[in-house]
Amino acid sequence: MVEFPPRRKPSRKGSMADVPKDLLEQIKDLERLFTVDQSKLKEVTDHFVKELDKGLSVEGGSIPMNPTWVMGYPDGHETGTFLALDMGGTNLRVCEIILPEEKGEFEIIQSKYRMPEELKTGDSEELWEYIADCLQQFIEYHHEVEDLADMNDKQHKLPLGFTFSFPATQEYIDHGVLQRWTKGFDIAGVEGKDVAPLFEAALEKRSLPIKLSALINDTTGTLIASHYTDDTMQIGCIFGTGCNAAYMENCGSVPKIAHYDLPRDMPIAINCEYGAFDNEHVVLPRTPFDLIIDEDSPRPGQQAFEKMIAGLYLGELFRLVLVDLHDNKNVKIFEGQDIGKLRKAYSLDASFLSFIEEDPFENLSETGELFAKELGIQANKPELELCRRLAELIGTRAARLSACGVAAICKKKNIQSCHVGADGSVFNKYPHFKARGAQALREILDWPKGKRDPVDIRAAEDGSGVGAALIAALTIKRVKAGNLAGIRHAEGMV
Fold first, then answer.
1. Which of 151, 141, 152, 147 has its CA nearest to residue 110?
2. Is 218 a catalytic residue?
3. Which run of H or E residues covers position 42?
4. Does pLDDT of 146 surpass 80?
5. Which of 145, 136, 89 is nearest to 111 (CA)?
6. Would you tell me which of 52, 128, 227, 391 could form a disulfide with 356, CB atoms 3.0–4.6 Å apart?
7. CA 312/CA 334 separation, integer angstroms
8. Which of 425, 371, 364 is nearest to 389 (CA)?
9. Which of 73, 78, 72, 70 lies closest to 104, judged by CA?
């Protein structure tokens, strides 16, 4: 019997031989516009380091650099049963995480509950009631009713880590004042208020044996969960709809918390919120299309870095360029076609570009079908070649600029070698994002060729589930040790 080798995926080398001169010139212009070379990467990174420092100062800066009151990493010997609650834009996720005796191990059971659209713009009390109801359903399903009654009788409550990934100010790990709603939420009477007592009141109303031990951001959870299973992880990142990073700082290097008189060498996790980097527009290589995205956004002048690299904006950049080319009388693209669907703002997302970059065929047939199906545009081969190159340029620029934030933290902390835990839809699903980011890191940090990269960006552990539970465990460990810095309600935690 003849055995055939495995079938190879069709390879696509790409050819510009049949692209008309006017389109070739446009492609070259786009390459000049969107390419970020090594010297620019280094310039961005050096400015990034200064802005990270400024964010830690008493005066502050564009990057918030929020102290999280997570004081150190897990050592792998944390044990117990913990709940984790992850409040996202679409779903509510409830987890029970068991940390066994084995170092760095965990067991998890979880359930997802749909977040009703009407709750996102409804009444505050209804939101917290719904969340408490989901928690009640979860623990009643996974625990005997007698066990729950026994917990209440003995005042033994399940510690909970709450991943509340909305901008919040935290003076304590178990509280957080909502700065503003995002992700489509707009519930009156919550912004500017501490969400912890609102949540706890709903738990108490149902007599649920749950104690809020930590309110966390998903990026901080990513850092802690990743370090738990790999102690060389020193930075946690999110590259998805938005972008962010968290890392461990020394209290002595955070002037804005100096009044707490904490030991200078005590570690504290910093949630950078660095999507706001370069809001002053000093160094980022913004194109005319980036300016349009900023001007037409709900908050112009904010989140400058995020608007150049996050998944929410990559499709819109692509769309703006194509509309501009079509409307340019000197360029012949999509001639005589109705581009009404393409004119609709934010009608394309990062997955559209991802699909184009993954098209394996020489004639870009899958991209052609995508344009026909989604936009009603019959694109010819040269037009498809331009679209393919544009997607590559936008995706590559995002990956290369994203490396600047990681490189800046490494330079600031003098990290020579580490693993970086990354999560988010762009990192996990966008083709070549990781490889392009790694190449940019090599260029910024001048690593010698032919050797293994000393800073390696890897897929992170579950930050909003396992990370939240671990941070709850770390908080309880601190209470037992008498280290109550940044803990408001230590009573009932042990």
1. 141
2. yes
3. helix 38-56
4. no
5. 136
6. 391
7. 25
8. 364
9. 78
Interior angle at CA 216, CA 215 and CA 220, nearest 5: 160
Whether residue 9 has pLDDT greater than 70: no
The Cα diameter of the chain in Å comes to 80
Q: Is the pLDDT of residue 329 over 90?
A: no
* Residue linked to tokens 């966008």: 430
**In this model, does residue 131 exceed pLDDT 90?**
yes
Q: How far apart are CA 166 and CA 455, in angstroms?
A: 29
Question: Dihedral (C-alpha) 200, 202, 205, 206: value to the nearest 10 degrees?
Answer: -100
Helix or strand (DSSP H, E) at 248: strand 243-250
Is beta strand 455-459 parallel, antiparallel or unpaired with respect to 210-216? unpaired
Cα(488)–Cα(485) distance, integer angstroms? 9
Decide the pairing of beta strands 66-67 and 177-178.
unpaired
End-to-end CA distance of the chain: 68
The answer for residues whose C-beta is within 8 angstroms of residue 156's C-beta and 6 or more apart is: 150, 209
Radius of gyration from C-alpha coordinates of the chain: 25
Q: How many CA atoms lie within 13 A of 107 on its CB side?
A: 7
Phi, psi of 147, deg, nearest 5: -65, -40
Q: Which of 165, 213, 354, 402 is catalytic?
A: 165
Is residue 165 annotated as a catalytic residue, yes or no?
A: yes
Sequential DSSP letters for 22-89:
HHHHHHHHHHHHH---HHHHHHHHHHHHHHHHHHHSSS--SS--EE----S---S---EEEEEEEE-S
Q: Are 297 and 314 in contact (CB under 8 A)?
A: no
Cβ–Cβ < 8 Å for 78, 473:
yes
465 secondary structure, DSSP code: I
CB neighbour list of residue 382: distance below 8 Å, 6 or more residues apart: 18, 19, 20, 23
Token duo for residue 185: 């939420």
Residue 7 pLDDT > 60? no
* Catalytic position from the list 180, 186, 207, 338: 180
Catalytic entry in 218, 290, 349, 462: 218
- Rounded CA-CA distance 123/186 in Å is 10
How large a percentage of the chain has pLDDT more than 70?
94
Side chain identity, residue 14: G
Residue of higher predicted confidence among 239 and 493: 239
* C-alpha torsion angle, residues 101, 267, 182, 316 (rounded to 10): -100
pTM for this prediction: 0.90
Residue identified by tokens 């990559």 is 314
CB neighbour class for 374 (10 Å; exposed up to 12, middle 13-18, buried from 19): middle
